[in-house]
Amino acid sequence: MRLHLLQVGYGDDEPVAARRDRVAALVAAQEGADLVVLPELWAHGGFASATWAERAEALDGPTARAMADATRACGAVVHAGSLVERDGDALHNTSLLLGPDGALLARYRKVHRFGHGRGESEVMTPGEEVVVVDAPLPGGPSSGSPAGLPVGLATCYDLRFPELFRALVDRGARLVVVPAAWPAARAEHWRLLVRARALEDQVLLAACGTAGTHARTPMAGASAVVGPDGAVLAEAGEAEEVLVVDVDPGVVDAARAAFPVLADRRL
Where is the CN hydrolase domain (predicted)? Predict the structure, then answer.
């Protein structure tokens, strides 16, 4: 299975519409990918909480439509990162997983909001669902799922809450996808957490971060794919980059069979 992590870089001087068009063209160009992954809130600004309300969209809005069109063009499964979703009076940090035909496979509203009473935790309404979906990706039937590979969804700050990832595993996840807008000031936390979540739950983890500086916040970059043994299979630098990684989903079942730690859980 070939993963393409699109570590999008941007600043405050790039209009949302222009960035949407640029990133849609980038997604459409990902020939040969099985799964394309985008970062958290790449269109609306990961730390731009002051403008989220005015930039928010319904799930049939321009960002979702652009991603559906780009997905059909590249013919891969696409994790479209996340967008600011407006649902009535509520705003959500919502991730979309799209099938090769552009149809919606799954929606995940971020459960854990960052900000300690400000920013996202003040503006966004938390999600309440743990989301795992059988995606049409290579390696699915080998894990006992004829419908596809079981993919779990999480977003950025969720990495600090291991109970969510254990819940994803309990629902069958073999691959967990984590879009993020992680700041450079805590880049080492990011590196530690993506390895810890993959290792303790024996999953493949694809974590796609953001590059550049926006809302006066430098981004960490460092998108990574991590194996179920906690080994970093590939890591991006700090600038905009397309990280291409070939992985075998069968390593998850092999790791769990060789070291069946999950079978020893008591709580």
Answer: 1-249
The reply to whether 110 belongs to the active site is yes
Residues of the domain holding 158: 2-264
Residues 73-105: tens digit of each pLDDT? 999 999 999 999 999 999 999 999 999 999 999
What CATH number should be reported for the domain holding residue 179? Answer: 3.60.110.10
| Annotated catalytic residue, options 85, 110, 120, 208 | 110
Query: Residues 235-248, buried b or exposed e (16+ Cβ, 10 A)?
Result: bbebebbbbebebe
Catalytic residue among 74, 85, 156, 208: 156
- Global pTM value: 0.96
Rounded CA gap, 238 and 246, in Å? 21
Known catalytic residue at 74: no
